[in-house]
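Final report, closing paragraph on structural work. Over the funding period we assembled a curated collection of sequence-structure pairs, and we close with a single example.
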Amino acid sequence: MSEEVNTPKQNWFVGAFFSDRDPQDQTARFLAEGVWENGFEDRHLDVVKSMRPGDRIAIKASYVRKHGVPFDTRGHLVSTMAIKATGRVTRNHGDGRRVDVDWNPLEQPREWYFYTGRATIWKVATGSWMSEALIRFAFDNEQQDISRFRNDAAWSKRFGDEDPSPEEDFQWTPFYEELATALLSYKDRRGELLAALQNLQTRHENLNYLTDKDENGVSMPLDDICPFTVFGSFNRGITHAKRTALAGDWAKALGLSTPPPTAFDAIPLLNNQNSWFFSYKPERASGDIDALWDAFEAALSLASSSEDQARIRFAEAYDRARGIRGVGGKLSMGLFWIRPWNFLPLDGQSRRYLKTALMLDGNLFQADGSRYLDILDTLVAKFDDPEYPVHSFPELSWTAFLDPAGRSDEADGDPVELAPPSPTKPYSVADIVLDGCFVSESELTEILARWRSKKNIILQGPPGTGKTWLARRLAYALIGSKDLKSAIRAVQFHPNMSYEDFVRGWRPGSDGKLTLVNGPFLEMVERANAVPEVPHVVLIEEINRGNPVQVFGELLTLIEAGKRSPREALHLAYPRASDETVHVPSNLHIIGTMNLADRSLAIMDLAFRRRFGFVSLAPALNDSWLQWMKAKHNVEVAHLETVRRRFDALNASIRDDSTLGAEFMLGHSFVTPPAEERVDSYVSWFRAVVTTEIAPTLKEYWFEDPSSAEAEVSKLVEGLN
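Its predicted structure, as stored:
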């Protein structure tokens, strides 16, 4: 019994929509019978079995709204989740289908915005400010801090207080979404849509390609059309002015009064020679265009619902439509057009960016519907991370377009009027300090100058000194901007990391045959060579966890600052041709991080050390830390002084211990909440960190003398309230 009581309780958000029941919304029955049921016989069984008595559970309904919300949507759709009832699980029947619940019905559903999940059964764990805010909203009746969510990186481009740069506000997206919604009503009125097309063809000669052909190749009017081909008519290689005019006339024909966009940033274009989503009539299967309409409808439904039925329907419709002759990967572009905040385009530039900058590969171009949904789920989860390079699908597409190594100014030989690359927002050492670095600006300037000269540096220090955090921001400052995200590639070394993983090696291809594949380092060599005016960075976390000499191989010679020249080029261990040589360009810089307290690591090879500059970081609970904590988290100075004094005393004990030393001191990250985290009580937050992070670390340090660890823990929290 006591074991059950001490088990941490879980938080569940579950749907009550059953497409095969009458009524489809089963909320009333669940409340009346004191149960919740899984509507599937073959899905989520293990998840439901993991629900435990005492867990908190809420019935949710997810949808999108544009009007009637307590903030300005600026014409965008906003993800909304209504909490309809809350309760506690009292019994799990163990069949994966049913749990008993002590429900607390709500008089009116409470609406929650933005962070709404993508699954019928959503287990929300503590650990992030977003999830904890949702838990407090649902189960403790707290209000949502809408302003904080609006201004988070994942949603600020649409709903935030600070106006984004013109090319990053994606003003075209509301128009595209409205046009798609209006177009859906023509699914069973395609004759009217064709009449509108014929009328538009009299005024837009660039629409004249939309004619069919008979068995003899003779042109004839279309007798059917799909919604993606309608969108494709103004998302191909024509000038912006023509795109605006055509999009506006399509909108008028469909009964919309919304003005068309004049800028089309982040929108992938169709090849002018392949702008259709279906074949000419002799090669077209009878159900092709119906399948495209079904995929269109399923996508719009999925964008406004998190129910499993919508996901299943979409995956099946996606597979049918994608299998149509001539569609393939173009389908994802069409999905992005109609709901740009919900779907990922898999055009060439986006796939390249996903692989080289975001490290998502796996032959995405061939992904089926289920795999495509998995990719969406993965990215949406990462968009919530403020450190992730991009925070939405339009931003991903725009960043891929800006990528200097992948950008093209022509589509299939036809001149295309593309938006010029926007001026990137500068980033310097002053910005590093503003972001929350407690190293002085002058010291940062010296580190950056040394890195430019040496080409390769390693940040070393005790745990918690912000090595990876600082390494990434030094990379931004070296490049001069945060915006050129593809100029940075992060890699984590581990004991099994090999030359074949990092540089180049044989890998099985999709056909089962072995093929030579470049690793992340050679990919960055190629990127840096392609754009020599832009500094590029390889960031290697925990560089001493691998065997760097073995991992770099012959390139260890070439990374030396004095050998960054084509004259120094060498043959690789796995050449693509007998005469292939490689050199490391001078605009490719390496920054590594190294945790000095890791006892499992061997001394680094001297030849490797000679090619790197080393920068030591120490715990920095200095006046800069105190001022930042007061300004960012509104912590009383008295509490900060107390924590600083006690933490310094702890580090002195660690430093003076003959079995430990300065490299085992604890860094300031242990006592510094992330900038994006809301801390209502710093003392409570600090006590929790001591219990869950600092105490376990000290027990490991003094594993043969647990009383010393306990004494140090007591000193940290004694009298703090």
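The longest strand covers residues 98-113. The chain is about 40% helix and 15% strand. We thank the funder for supporting this effort.
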